Amino acid sequence: MTSTLFTNIGELATNDPGAEDLLGLVEDAALVVEGGRVAWVGRAADAPAADEAVDLGGRAVLPGFVDSHSHLVFAGDRAQEFAARMAGESYAAGGIRTTVAATRAATDEQLTSHVARLVEEMRRQGTTTVEIKSGYGLSVRDEARSLAVARQFTEETTFLGAHVVPEGTTPEEYVALVTGPMLEAAAPYARWIDVFCERGAFDADQARAVLEAGAAHGLRGRLHANQLGPGPGVRLAAELGLVAVDHCTYLDDADVDALRDAGTIATLLPGVEFSTRQPYPDARRLLDAGVRVALASDCNPGSCFTSSLPLCIALAVRDMGMTPAEAVHAATFRGAEALDRDDVGALVPGRRADLMVLDAPTHVHLAYRPGVPLVRGVWVAGRPV
Amino acid sequence: MTSTLFTNIGELATNDPGAEDLLGLVEDAALVVEGGRVAWVGRAADAPAADEAVDLGGRAVLPGFVDSHSHLVFAGDRAQEFAARMAGESYAAGGIRTTVAATRAATDEQLTSHVARLVEEMRRQGTTTVEIKSGYGLSVRDEARSLAVARQFTEETTFLGAHVVPEGTTPEEYVALVTGPMLEAAAPYARWIDVFCERGAFDADQARAVLEAGAAHGLRGRLHANQLGPGPGVRLAAELGLVAVDHCTYLDDADVDALRDAGTIATLLPGVEFSTRQPYPDARRLLDAGVRVALASDCNPGSCFTSSLPLCIALAVRDMGMTPAEAVHAATFRGAEALDRDDVGALVPGRRADLMVLDAPTHVHLAYRPGVPLVRGVWVAGRPV
Predict the structure, then answer these.
(1) Model confidence pLDDT, tens digit, residues B186-195
(2) pTM as predicted
(3) Cβ separation of A367 and B86 shorter than 8 Å?
(4) How close does chain A come to B3, measured CA to CA in Å?
(5) A137, A181 Cβ separation under 8 angstroms
(6) Residue A377: DSSP 8-state
(7) Residues B59-111 pLDDT 10s
(8) CB B331 within 8 A of CB B345
(9) What value of ipTM does the predicted structure carry?
(10) Nearest by CB: A79 against B83, B311, B368
């Protein structure tokens, strides 16, 4: 088994949970990869011999981003809707229906090629693990094939039949479909099940019914909640002991307490607030209360068509009260936790060697240099991609 | 002379001033380059024959960005100052002195290599013309060599000795130095002269003295003004008939009227407001009043270390009331106007063939997909770079 030494690393963020600082930073560092996993990390001066070496020229190395929330399976383009919104129209969840029509009309090959392009775009920006949801099919056939497409790219597939109630059906009929034949068809391709629990989408009872039906099929629950206004979703997530609940823009004190007590991760998606001009979620409040916070892209064609976790980090630092270290940790280690993964999200012995090299000396530059494509190289399981 | 046909362009932004729409958009377009210049533009179906062809796969093509305001000649890094500011400290112009010390200590080779890296980084993001200022030397020797370094990369060099008053000298002494020996030494390498006209830097009388001295040496004037608060700089720029005045964050009605009446361009630099959490300038107000608005990066290590005009466009659309078309136009055509250049900034016959290809079907995606590195390819004078 060939071993590779990555050396001359100016700053290595290990995310070692045993380190004194959040990112487990090591300066003048090196890292050895063997069999696709991290075999050793430490000071370059102490590095063991390896079969081959990669000199990183003093650059910073971080774990690959773990993007725990995206909607990549779709067709069509909503650039004009975006421009209209920027000119003053408010975001309407109904815009989803445009994408549903285009997605249903697309072939499997078209959907696959579209997802491939976005996954490749994410990789170039440092994302090495991505969760992908369905939710633009909203029919038995189209949800199942959306997940079959997603499954070609990631193990982290999420059935989001309960994204919005499609036209021509009542909420009651649709929940029965989602929890019945649609779930039957989708479950073989999904690890997770998710519901958009929001006024105008699904209420708490409907969300609970969907999550319980998913659990009966072996799917673990996640939730979209408290994005557009206050609501019961976050407390439901805590009550059910979900690993993560996503958006969390409108929280009262009871919501924050519930998240802390349940240990449920709040996954914040600041690209959405950037792209819709909504208020940002208050990451500082959550962190100060002892809630774990993850950052993800929510890449989707409607409310947030960015795939850039570097931008999300810059926004989290500028507008959500996170330090650069907290934001990087949230997009790597916490992202992995939000997917209940202990094999990615950190560069410590035994974890998969998913890493990015920045054209910068430290992780701070991801926030200090907003918009600049700083990711110079990406390795997945120790191989350049 | 070889001619090259760029064809299968989904959307071509020509910036043709004679077109009915601001960007002079042509769909299903083609463009012919000969001798480094645009020879023909129009519908692909009507394109003339050429010696070679480049198929752009339906992607959007724009003129290269013209970044009319940057400070690329410096050494050192202020990432920690940035992190401290994000944690609550307010922006202090004094931070410039850190960079001055590092710049003075750097060799010419170090400065050159640093500028080369940033210019290359800009090119990858679509910038094909860049103005570069001195202003971190603040001594006769260091201002002159800063400009000599900048001149290796661009014709658009700007002497900004009047950036801040260095330690150990009075404002009066320093203005005498700037308008005397420093100007003598700098003028051979500069096209423009600039002053930071702001409370705590240089007042209107000092700015006028510097600009007039520059004019006597054949340098054309520009100004930093009204960035941190209201002030006389914008009206001075209009009175002197400067081609552009930069920042323009704090304007009263008389300022706006003066800009319109003088035809002076307001160059807005939203990366600064993003990176310092200051209020954004109101582009909409300026445009509605009939003022021409340019967008530039202000790339510098202190208040704004982004080199990304795509990010500036996204911010202008989100936070400054510009449409995507206005923002793209401001970063291309208006940028060229702000440098008094009629050979770049548009893709019409006779202009230099500086263009970018987006991994997107339309220019709107630059705002719709914030943070995503959408620039797939860049050509300068018809050659890929």
Answers:
(1) 999 999 999 9
(2) 0.98
(3) yes
(4) 32
(5) no
(6) E
(7) 999 999 999 999 999 999 899 999 999 998 765 555 888 999 999 999 999 99
(8) no
(9) 0.97
(10) B368
